[in-house]
Amino acid sequence: MTGRLEGKVALVSGAARGQGRSHAVRLAEEGADIVAFDVCRTLDTVEYPMGTPEELKETVRRVEQLDRRILVREADVRDGAALGELVAEAVAEFGRLDVVCANAAITGFVENTWSITDAQWAEMIGVNLTGVFTTVRAAAPAMIAAGNGGSIVITSSSAGTKGMVNLGHYSAAKHAVVGLMRTLANELAPHMIRVNTLHPTGVNTPFINNDHIRGFIEANPSWAANMANALPIEHVEPVDISNAIIWLSSDEGRYVTGVCLPIDAGFAQR
After folding, report:
1. Which stretches in the chain have pLDDT values below 70?
2. I need a labelling partner for 132 at 20 to 30 A (CA). Which of 101, 126, 142, 240 fits?
3. Which residues does 188 contact at the CB level (< 8 Å), separation at least 6?
4. What is the pLDDT of residue 226?
5. Catalytic: which of 37, 94, 170, 207?
6. What pLDDT shows up at residue 221?
7. Which residues contact 149 (CB under 8 A, 6 or more apart)?
8. Strands of the 9-13 sheet, one edge to the other
9. Is 255 considered catalytic here?
10. pTM of the model
């Protein structure tokens, strides 16, 4: 533990596994106490298994192994009342909130944009865009009231930097959070709260390592080329994204706001 976030409190959405778990653990390694939540069930239009209560408990175990405190709840990122209650509970227990990782997301391939059903569109936009809004809406007043400044990091995607076929609803949401970030960066700047987006390429987690994603790519060989990075690697690791969050949320990134930061092995340059 190097202590770059010693004494801070960080909120992480989608924390049961994958990037969310990695963020919670890395933040704890740097000295932060953690507030974590995940829906812990598979949503109606999602075609791969999502995180479970048991996986969320494993996140708790790993944070506590680092001798950090963690407050954890099962909650849907779209549920504004539940998130408001969680933030209030966190502030009552820890006294502050400094870092927000708006990480929770879903994905899924479709034949084309005009084949997207109402349910698929609503759930994708609900989780990946409205969920970010709901998370920030719950957290920002507490961060402002604490008067300590802070960092909000929204996970967008490489699909938030360019149009990607078969991902119209996902790409739309991931582009939209960039506009939300840019507005928030201006609105929260007077409070020394910085807001940025991250744009990963494929990350080695169950989010892409599942039968739905693999099956689609196998059935559509051109997609292997679409997913290729400039650097000769298949994907990045969750910790690569977590390390960017640490940098943005520490004093090293204290004047960085309104930035779209790619961690994409050169994907966007191809």
Report:
1. 1
2. 240
3. 140, 143, 144, 152, 194, 195
4. 74
5. 170
6. 83
7. 98, 143, 191, 192, 193, 194
8. 70-74, 33-38, 9-13, 99-102, 150-155, 193-200, 260-263
9. no
10. 0.97
Domain assignments of the chain as residue spans, ordered by start: 9-262
Q: pLDDT value at position 224?
A: 74
What's the rounded Cα separation, in Å, for the pair 75 and 207? 19
- CA-based torsion, 115, 120, 121, 122: positive or negative: positive
Query: Using CA atoms, how far apart are residues 152 and 237, in angstroms rounded to an integer?
Result: 21
Bridge-based pairing state of the strands 9-13 and 99-102 = parallel
The third-level CATH classification (topology) of the domain covering 9-262 is: Rossmann fold (3.40.50)
What does the chain come to in residues? 270
What is the model's pLDDT at position 225? 75
* Residues 26-61 as b or e (16 or more Cβ within 10 Å = b): bbbbbbbbbbbbbbbeeeebbbbebbbeebbeebbe
Q: For 102, phi and psi rounded to 5 degrees?
A: -85, 85
The pLDDT assigned to 214 comes to 87
- The torsion angles phi and psi of 262, rounded to 5 degrees, stand at -80, 135
Q: Which of 232, 233, 240 is nearest to 262 (CA)?
A: 240
Amino acid at 89: E
CA dist 143 and 194 (Å) reads 11
